[in-house]
Amino acid sequence: MRLLLFCLLFVVTFAQVRAQPKPTARQLAWQQLETTAFLHFTVNTFTDKEWGDGTESPAIFNPTKLDARQWIKALKDGGFKMAILTAKHHDGFCLWPSKLTEHSVKNSPYKGGKGDVVREVAEACREYGLKFGVYLSPWDRHEPRYGTADYNDYYKGQLRELLTNYGRIDEVWFDGAKGENAKNMSYDFAGYWAMVRKLQPQAVMFSDAGPDIRWVGNESGNAGETCWSTIDTTGLAPGKADAAYLNRGDANGPVWIPAETDVSIRPGWFYHATEDSKVRTPANLVKLYYESVGRNSLLLLNIPPNREGLLAESDVASIRNFRRILNETFRKNLVVKTSRLTDGKLSTFVDVEAGKPLEIQLLGEQLIDRIAIQENIENGQQIINGQVEYWDGRTWQPLKTFTTVGYKRLIRFPEVRTAKLRLLIKQAKGPVQLAEVGAYKAATGEN
Ligand code: FUL
Questions:
Q1: How far is the CA of 358 from the centre of ligand 1 (A)?
Q2: Neighbouring C-beta atoms of residue 64, cutoff 10 Å
């Protein structure tokens, strides 16, 4: 009997543990960066292509004014916390002098073949206090070994060079993209990932399906209106994605693999002068922030250097103003200060029961049009849906309904004047730990 009870207890406990996936320390740190940047730069910048075919001569890579400090300073001013560089894109050209191929900067006119763009960016990141990440394309259209088992050794050798020569790396991007007519290739992803864990244990790894962070399922900058940080990876792999599933996640997913929203400030991922007039405006970038960070994701914005090796002034101005607007909107939380809900920490929270409304006092009567809610995701993600109401002086008026919250839910609505709000969590998977609540008046530049 005792044994039976013990077994039952074990099964129940095991089921609960399984049902409550939580982030690792590296995932938690990554999520809180909120906005990170992509730098797409290679021979494509000089051929005006998006996907090089691998036949490009290193002789065309000649950024005469390259200044990685200009890139990283601009990203810092834009509030980006990490820069991820395309060390090698699909064309196979390496931005560092890899010992494993001739197809690199060492055979280009850049700094007379003595340049190393990976090093310059890594050092600039250190100087300005940004984290640094690398993109190393598995699909390689130049390397002749691609398609054979030997290519896995080549790829691992390159990964090792990047992970051991440039200091700390905080993200490694494994792109699943591959052309339709490309050779078959059986990648040893398990081997690649094990190497990253061993050499840079703090780094998060991105692919369509994790292991640490997942693709959001589109390149237009929007996480799902409902977005769970949990998924079931069965049937998923790099290059094998169910876009709609990745976009919204899965309330019942057994693993914690949050969504990263990657999008470019221009129509293409690489710089093309013809797209100079199509740079996203600050207001558009702010909209993307609401639709990514504000939906429990992270915004990975690509700002591609031009042929001179500089970020274009238009792009620099756009990200600077994007940050100015966000700072202005979120400068002052109009909720009455409490030790737990307004201290900016996830780990200090209030337990909230589904079905029991929580009143939130504002600092007197205020004009507001934005609300921010955060769960203590250290303990997982619980909220399924809820609503907010405001007090119009006589009764409670409906303001907005919402679904998942997770790390952050940002709610936008036409401005109302009110002195208090009421938050109701209607359904939750488990006990809700409400970490933060904020009410704001958006900066004029937002719309
Ligand atoms: C895609 C690639 O094919 C694009 O060129 C770009 O690098 C984007 C971030 O990922 O899969």
A1: 44
A2: 10
